[in-house]
Amino acid sequence: MSFSSSPVVSLRDVTIYQDVQTVLSNVNFDVEKGEFVYLVGRTGSGKSSLLKTLYADLPLQTGNAAVAEFQLGKLRRKQVPFLRRKLGIIFQDFQLLFDRTVAENLAFVLKATGWSDKSKRKQRISEVLMRVGLDAAANKMPHQLSGGEQQRVVVARALLNEPVILFADEPTGNLDPAVADGIMKLFQEINNHGTAVLMATHNYEIIQRYPQRVLKCENGRVLDSKVEEFNLVNGYQ
Ligand SMILES: Nc1ncnc2c1ncn2[C@@H]1O[C@H](COP(=O)(O)OP(=O)(O)OP(=O)(O)O)[C@@H](O)[C@H]1O
């Protein structure tokens, strides 16, 4: 049995590309188990490209990176679903299936990730919906829910397989401040239960209200508040 304490994310001398364009270079950082880290930077600075590389949507071409104990440089296409099962991924646009109920949206993911027992699926769906405060919404269609409630369903979906880390790209982007705050509280609670979070955001107020370590994409580099001081304020446009 192994009780590994290796970081959930570890990058060494990584270059992030979009096609042949270099977006970020010399990227070096770790995210430890249970850590909460923000990712900031102006629009186009490379936040989404970095996240996409971490969940193997963009290939790792240069440097070494490990995520949830998978070496990204050596990852074959057929291994990608196994990596993704260890991750929770949350986008700004909700990407729910609008022709299915909330429970069916969640069941779809469970079936695709090997949950063959129907009663276990049902049980897990009710657990995650309870966790995000939406246990009464299982049989509703997504369009019957508010934007904030839809985002909670997305968070519930990301929690289905008990991920070691949540990657969230602007999860509060389209939400009004009070609803965004509710989503942040949910993230904090999930983090307090041991899931690491790496969250890209343009929302300076949220970082002020819930201060955590910050990684900042700037001029093709990633700065880390853990190792150096930098100006936070100009990373949000
Ligand atoms: N699919 C793509 N094909 C080619 N270039 C892309 C693609 N997506 C992004 N880029 C380019 O890569 C660079 C980084 O973009 P990225 O989306 O990672 O930035 P970001 O920091 O997430 O921006 P935003 O805050 O606006 O989401 C930009 O120059 C962008 O134009």
TrEMBL record:
Highest taxon listed in the record's lineage? Bacteria
Every copy of the ABC transporter domain together lies at 9-235
Q: Which GO terms describe its molecular function?
A: ATP binding; ATP hydrolysis activity; transmembrane transporter activity
Pfam families named among the record's database cross-references: ABC_tran
For this UniProt record, the keywords arranged alphabetically read as follows:
ATP-binding, Cell cycle, Cell division, Nucleotide-binding
Q: Does the keyword rRNA processing apply?
A: no
Question: One biological-process term from Gene Ontology?
Answer: cell division
Q: Where are the transmembrane segments?
A: none
Q: Which GO terms describe its cellular component?
A: plasma membrane
List the SUPFAM superfamilies hit by this protein, alphabetically.
Answer: P-loop containing nucleoside triphosphate hydrolases
Q: Does the keyword ATP-binding apply?
A: yes
The chain's coiled-coil residues are none
Q: What does this protein do?
A: Part of the ABC transporter FtsEX involved in cellular division. Important for assembly or stability of the septal ring.
Q: Which family does it belong to?
A: Belongs to the ABC transporter superfamily.
**Name of this protein:** Cell division ATP-binding protein FtsE
Which organism is the protein's source?
Pontibacter mucosus
